[in-house]
Fold each of these.
Amino acid sequence: MSKITFSRGGVHPHDNKLARECRIEVLPLPPVMYVSMAQHLGAPAKPIVAPGDFVKAGQVIAEPGGFISAFVHSPVSGTVKSVAPRKDLAGNPVMHVEIAVEGDVWMDGIDLSDTLVTALPEDRDAVLAKIKECGIVGLGGATFPTHVKLAPPPGKTAECLIINGTECEPFLTSDYRIMVERPREILVGAAIMQNVLGGCRCVIGIEENKPEAIAIMKKAIKELGYEKRMKVAVLKKRYPQGGEKQLIDAVMRRQVRSGGLPIDVGAVVQNAGTALAVYEAVQKNKPLVTNVLTVTGKSLPESRQHNYLFRIGMPLSYIIEQAGGAPEGAVKLVSGGPMMGKAVSNPDAATVKGSSSLLYLDAADTMRKSASSCIRCGRCADACPMGLEPFLLNRLAKVSDMDGLEANAVQDCIECGCCLYSCPANIPLLDNIRVAKGQVLGIIRARAAAKKQ
Amino acid sequence: MRDVLIALAPAEILSVLVYGWSELLVLAVGITSCVLLEWAITKWMLRKPSTIGDLSAAVTGLLLVMNVPSSTPWWIVVIGSIVAIGIAKMSFGGIGQNIFNPAITARVFLLVSFPRQLTDWSVSQGFIHATDAISGATLLGVYGEGGMEALTAIGYPENHKMFMDIGGSAGEISAALLLLGFIYLLIRKVVKPWIPLSIIGTVFVVSTIFYFVNPEVYTGPVFNLLTGGVLLGAFFMATDYVTSPMSTLGGVIYGIGIGVILMMIRYFGSYPEGVSFAILIMNCFVPLFNRWFHQKKFGRA
């Protein structure tokens, strides 16, 4: 089978999938959980519980704070202790609901069994409502509310639903594990979304470094009789293949215009984890209160690599403790992959819907080498999947040339880090560009707001 | 930069073998003086960490050595190093900041300051015996002086193997070894082929046109590609990251410019060879090209 990939840029970091053979383990419950109100893209959710309330697992504890927002559910049963700001993993205060765990009582009507439910519901609106009520958000990183993405604006139709099973970030194995262990649930979830989108074609994109996942997903498609509905696309191993625009480019050979949305080219991309969450929501009535997270790192021995099924809201420190504490030699803890993950400055922070990994980095992988002068070799421009010129953006950022930055499309940057990764002079390109991008986006937003008035 | 040194090595080694001790002296003086000078400037004038570890001073030194005759007196090579490193490179702010290719700036400076020494093609006894053509004047020199008639008089083309032993500056000794080095750089993905291809293509097209118009006056494409510094310049000097355009389109226009200018100098100029001048002139346009031409962005037509 021919392998496909996106048309420009990209790098090939070692994939380091150290935890790939580790089966998903269920973590026991901690005494206290902290559920963030801002664990999705868009407006934070508004809490509807007060201290002293008893809540069950799966019960709504916060409602959407806007059109682009999501419901939040209690992941455990217990008593609400507080509704107050608490530091997230970067140390910023965010509203959290603190719940003291008592037993494990779930809301009525939630099916916690393993029985596969393949009968697809007919009513599109009911399915969309269910996905919304269950607080499903994209689990590939951006945590965009799924029901919004599945309801294209009038005049736009979906031609292709792409299930993102690329997991192109090194080290991460949570999507791989669910594809290997729960392939049929993912495919039923994909079929549900496919029906909601009006029966467009559906492609499951998996990178070639996961041959088992490719084989298992292909087999599951046959078992479910989905051959006519969907197919697996084998992608070359190349970072950032899992970037939404890159994946659409790879699968459909279409480029989403700058500032445009995937639906403009007829594409809807959903992560494999999201497909599983949609399955659980629609077929099992289970809200998004669990997810899978990888605990990994080169400094961990093989026996201490893990893939955990965690309840969303478990403190990171609790998971670290359950996994045997920080290993010797680890100097940095990252939430997410090594390329785009965020450094954890506050290990007491709670997990959120989008948590995908706890990655320990050792000194060799963390140390920044001292930067030398740019010799304009152009490797960053070759590596940029968006076709930008990072060397130029970096220079414009240094002199705060906002017009120049905008003219050279700094706002198109997807912050994948390929430029920084490829720079032989070790210049912190992305660090500088990210700050400049924030400023330029601010200017663009202010201009749009001024126009409206 | 280490890859560039490796790529240049075969041609320079052959040069040392053929030209003997005199070339070895030029080589040693050229590289040592460039590296020492950069070290001294960073230490005592700029008071910054030394940058000689990036090997770019060594590359500049080697390119300078390959761009002058093996008979060049050592003190002229030292002056060349001062111009290359001191003026063309460090006074602009060091690596990455210079507008003009340091080795070529130095060569052109030496050529106009010491024209006699820089066109003295007499050769000393080498370590190996080379067959022919490395006698006195270069083919380009002969053509520059006496035109096509003079070339024919010395037995061109029958007596000249074009891929080896061309004569001239040390680095121009073997087209085949320069090509080998360039292929190495391509395989290692150090350089892209567009700039050299556009220079070589332009030289080919321009000299073909002139040759067909009047073969009795104008030299042909094979002669122009294999003599003088076209290959050395196209492969190793026009491709210098710092002084060449970033974009592919910019690079192609830059290469065409170099090709046209060097052919005009060869056919109509008072110097027999124009590669260095052509590259220096086109170096001036690089900031403009970088402003005008950008690579294609994703999702922007």
Amino acid sequence: MDPLIGMGVLALIGAVAAIAGYTEDLESVVGSQSNPNSQVQLAPQMKYPHRLFNKAISGEPLSNGLAAVIGAVIAVSLDIYFDLSVPTLIVAGSIAAMMIHVVLATTSFFGRISSQSRFKQPLYMDVFKTHIPTIAAYAFMTTACILIICFLMSIYLSVGIPIPLLALILGITVGAIGSAVGDTHYGSERLYQNLEFGSGINAAYSGNIVRKAESGIRSGMDNSWFASKFGGPTTGIAFAAVLFMTSWMTVLFNPAWGNAVGWLGLIAGILFVAATAVINRYLEKSARRNFGPYREEEKTEIVE
Amino acid sequence: MDFFIDPIYQFTLLILITLGGVLITISVHMIPVGGAPAAMSQATGVGTGTTQLAAGAGLTGLLVAASVYILSGDALLCLVLGGIGSAIMLSIAMLIANIGYIYGVGIPLASGKASRDPITKDRQDIYVSKGTEGHGIPTAAFLSGIAGGFVGGIGGSLIFVALLKSPAGLPFESMSAVIPGAIILSIALFFVNAVIASYNIGGTIEGYYDQKFKKLPKAVVVSALITLICGIMCLLIMIQLELAYYGVNV
């Protein structure tokens, strides 16, 4: 294939991946499904009942991998038996995945909240009714974007991996990135917004999450508004960059043109990794310079 | 009957699969993960579970390895590019997580386990905020993570290539049936080894300079044993594909 078309397809994949990462992070924030869920789960036990939606179906990678693979299997099965266009297949697959995801979200919400009844945590039906459509919409968007990427990769980049398997791999990857990148902003900043900015969360505050919103009582919706300003976009950028940079190696330096070209791709990959390490070092130094230490540097020697 | 299953060849592949499993276990020990505490900026590392991050990185590497194998058919290139694919995924995830820590939460990157960064020799303990065990991914942990990603990617790709080569009697056209099988089994072995390493790590590890890294030999022994057993099962499944192709009922 012409490398120019390949780069165009890659750019499109990158754009769709950015949306997938964005919606994935917001979906996990609305339902507080990720590592910060431990704090939401802990809050009623520390006598802080809340109105947050609490679902932790599983770790984000597996939950997203499941949704993506359900969507892909439905789409591919419909493709075998009916003569449908690719967008129709993607929409049909995503709707099926969304429905399964909503079932899991519902059962985990009722299970998790009702198990905390001994800590006087009420089960708010209005929280359930208002959050479920949002969770469904974000789950639909994430699955649809993953399926678009899978079809693009399978048709134009000729990856050679069956679409359901590709969807499983990409779903697990988007979950891993969403869990690693976006959730720190939700867990460290949004849940503990009453603490002073610019510090890690002291373990003594565990469970003491903020329960008041900008107006009224805080719900998952308020959190998704906050995450959409930083956590979501960074997740999107990270997932897009991962897909772009890993596919770029094999599209621009296609090993099919000869092994020497493939090894050039390896050099490009190493250069990119080295560049991220340099940028990280620069960020580390600038943060230390601008924020300063928490304690004064003692004159005595450090005890190793 | 124009096929023959060579036991010595399959045994060599089994050794390679075991080696791949051990490499994955080593890689999980090198990746800086903080688990749930890191998501609250209470521990150094990436704020997600060990298994999940390692699996995300390893599967990205596997995707690259599979596409390189399909494009070129060169096993060595496939291994190395699979490794670099994992390293790229981890480097991006760690860099952007650090951007989140610095600009989103407003904290400097600091290690709780070492008073000086082993590589840059920067003072760490005074940058750790009160009541936490460090936060973010400082340079030594970052480089350890990249190395871990590379090793894990190579391990995953090694398992993939070994499983792919197992039904050696199959013609190249039937590769489209063998590749998905090899990928699914590699994913399975990846998860098995990542979970074994997680027991050793117990939630958080900062990288090669962490005290928990010294427990690595135990994990390597367990991983080698488990991967050997699982590897036999996987090879049996892959040989079945070859038998099925030639119409042998087992």
